[in-house]
Design brief:
Blueprint (H helix, E strand, L loop, with lengths): L10 H11 L4 E6 L4 H12 L3 E7 L1 H10 L8 E4 L3 H13 L5 E4 L4 H8 L13 E7 L7 E4 L9 H17 L6 E5 L10 H14 L7 E6 L1 H5 L1 H7 L11 E3 L3 H14 L3 E7 L5 E3 L6 H20 L5
Parallel strand pairs: 1-2, 1-4, 2-3, 4-11, 6-9, 7-8, 7-9
Antiparallel strand pairs: 5-6, 5-10, 10-11
Helix pairs in contact: 1-11, 4-5
Length: 316
């Protein structure tokens, strides 16, 4: 994708990166950084003093990639593990034993890493459902948009969505952004039995009223237009503190979320930093298509959230 640079268009990410750089770098277990993108992402984040990487994987291969692509590994520790499954297991162990504060995906498949994360006895599970958030910097939009879940939970049920929403709210607060306005998206803004996601949206809002979801203002069902456009909300006659002002967009399923995030990325030149939540520590997910700024933003988000968690441990 050809990137179009407009002055000031990515100031939201720049603010997040600057805030993270003001904090101490965190030891980060990087699982199997055995391609140019994943190894370069860890090196770039280390150069910006966001993380202190511990590279977990075959030492010879990592060193070869570093030499091939002229990457300076500096003082980065390399733990020699021959294959990707072992690297995922060892990286998770480093976090579980307190030798690393963050986990970062390398070139292995996401499922391979998360399989180790969710293991009951040796993983990083909490009482929360694991979920993914895209933290999106959309040019021309006034604030950062969070989209969840577009990468982990394919067709979450009501209680899974409760955790997905709570994870995103806690991330928003952990970044120092205040109390978020959360829109639960569907195709329409009225509850109808023919569209099950509208019924779930109504139930989730009532759960928030009863204290089962805390820390955010919820409204739904809302269609995408009246969730982010004050004019669309006005035309539809929707009166709420969330409509037209949403900061967290909760999608009905992974397919909808993935298409929404990629539409914003490829049609609006938005950047999409990725992070997995609900484990003991944030998990940094980057894509081969990410530019440098997006990779740094993913690390910055994880660093900010983890520093916040160390002051206030994650709630169940």
């Amino acid at each position: 994708m050809t990137e179009i640079n407009i002055p000031g268009q990515h100031e939201k990410y720049e603010r997040l990166i600057a805030a993270a750089k003001a904090l101490a770098p965190l030891a980060t277990a990087v699982a199997y950084p055995c391609d140019e993108t994943s190894l370069k992402g860890a090196v770039e984040a280390a150069e910006e003093r966001l993380i202190s990487p511990i590279l977990v994987g075959p030492k010879d291969k990592i060193s070869e990639f570093a030499q091939t692509f002229s990457l300076d590994l500096g003082r980065a520790e390399i733990i020699d593990v021959p294959h990707s499954q072992g690297a995922a297991e060892k990286a998770v162990e480093l976090v579980r034993t307190g030798n690393a504060e963050l986990l970062m995906k390398g070139s292995l498949h996401t499922d391979e890493l998360l399989t180790e994360v969710v293991k009951r006895d040796t993983g990083l599970r909490t009482e929360r459902r694991i979920s993914h958030v895209f933290v999106m910097d959309v040019p021309g939009h006034s604030h950062t948009l969070f989209i969840t879940d577009a990468a982990v939970n394919i067709a979450p049920d009501l209680m899974a969505k409760r955790d997905i929403i709570q994870n995103a709210i806690d991330l928003f607060a952990g970044l120092g952004l205040g109390t978020p306005k959360v829109a639960i998206l569907s195709a329409v803004e009225t509850v109808t039995t023919s569209i099950p996601s509208t019924i779930e949206a109504g139930a989730l809002c009532k759960m928030a009223d009863r204290g089962q979801i805390t820390g955010g203002e919820l409204d739904g069902p809302l269609a995408f237009d009246n969730a982010i456009s004050p004019e669309a909300a006005r035309i539809k006659g929707i009166k709420s503190s969330v409509a037209g002002q949403a900061q967290i967009l909760v999608v009905p399923d992974l397919e909808a979320g993935n298409m929404l995030a990629k539409n914003l990325t490829f049609l609006s030149q938005a950047d999409a930093a990725g992070i997995v939540l609900g484990a003991r520590v944030p998990i940094i997910l980057t894509s081969r298509a990410d530019n440098v700024r997006t990779r740094l933003a993913s690390c910055a988000v994880a660093v900010l959230l983890r520093h916040s968690q160390l002051k206030q441990p994650i709630r169940a």
